[in-house]
Write a structure and sequence with these properties.
single chain, alpha/beta, binds uracil, binds 1-O-pyrophosphono-5-O-phosphono-alpha-D-ribofuranose
């Protein structure tokens, strides 16, 4: 697999993903699982955060310890489904800022249509993590990254939950500088550009709109 892409095989993530895929999983459980998987993916995607040494006084002695060295992060969910991933990310990195990019896929062309973009004012000083559970054709992620790149952040990573080979290929080709983290790489897209086997429409399942 391309160095740019990490597909996590951690048992906790795989177990939660199995329940997430199940069509009988309720919206409440679906939301909880998306949050939990996002937290675990955040752990994986932040392995390279720089540390600095500090001294702390324990009740016994002074210890040399390490803390994250002032890294400024921004999480950017693609609306709607990316919203479901934000809480899990913030649980681990509460000082990150949050931007939003609104996009939906045109039902006929499957091309993304952008309807909203609000990024932190200082995004040019930040490392951005783009969030969207589904990487299908890759169009939404590619366009969102195009928007974010106009603001010149330090770096961009993408965290998804399920990807299709077609979307992964398109995204790595369009943005070879973006590290990609997925919990699973599925088989293919169907004629409606849905991921097979996938989990259906992530936005609808999170928000109970179908
Ligand atoms: C879904 C999903 C991604 C996009 C992925 O959103 O959350 O944003 O499709 O597909 P792509 O890789 O082919 O672009 P959708 O367009 O259904 O909008 P919604 O979240 O508002 O329902
Ligand atoms: N968007 C989704 O929510 N699911 C898919 O399978 C493809 C795009």
């Amino acid at each position: 697999m391309n160095q740019q892409v990490t597909v996590t095989n951690h048992p906790l993530i795989q177990h939660k993903l199995a329940i997430l895929r199940d069509k009988n999983t309720s919206s409440k459980d679906f939301r909880d699982l998306v949050r939990e998987i996002s937290m675990l993916m955040c752990y994986e995607a932040t392995r390279d955060l720089p540390l600095e040494e500090v001294e702390v006084e324990t009740p016994v002695a002074v210890a040399k310890a390490k803390v994250i060295s002032g890294k400024k992060l921004a999480f950017v969910p693609i609306l709607r489904a990316g919203i479901g991933m934000v809480d899990g990310m913030l649980a681990l990195l509460p000082s990150a800022r949050v931007g939003h990019i609104g996009m939906y896929r045109d039902p006929d062309t499957h091309m993304p249509v952008e309807y909203y973009c609000k990024l932190p004012a200082d995004v040019h000083e930040r490392d951005v993590i783009l969030l969207d559970p589904m990487l299908a054709t890759g169009g939404s992620a590619i366009d969102a990254i195009n928007q974010i790149k106009k603001r010149k952040p330090h770096s961009i990573k993408f965290i998804g939950i399920i990807g299709a080979p077609e979307g992964l290929e398109a995204l790595t080709k369009a943005h070879p500088d973006v590290q990609i983290y997925l919990a699973a790489l599925d088989e293919k897209l169907n004629e409606h550009a849905y991921i097979v086997p996938g989990l259906g429409d992530a936005g609808d399942r999170i928000f109970g709109t179908k």
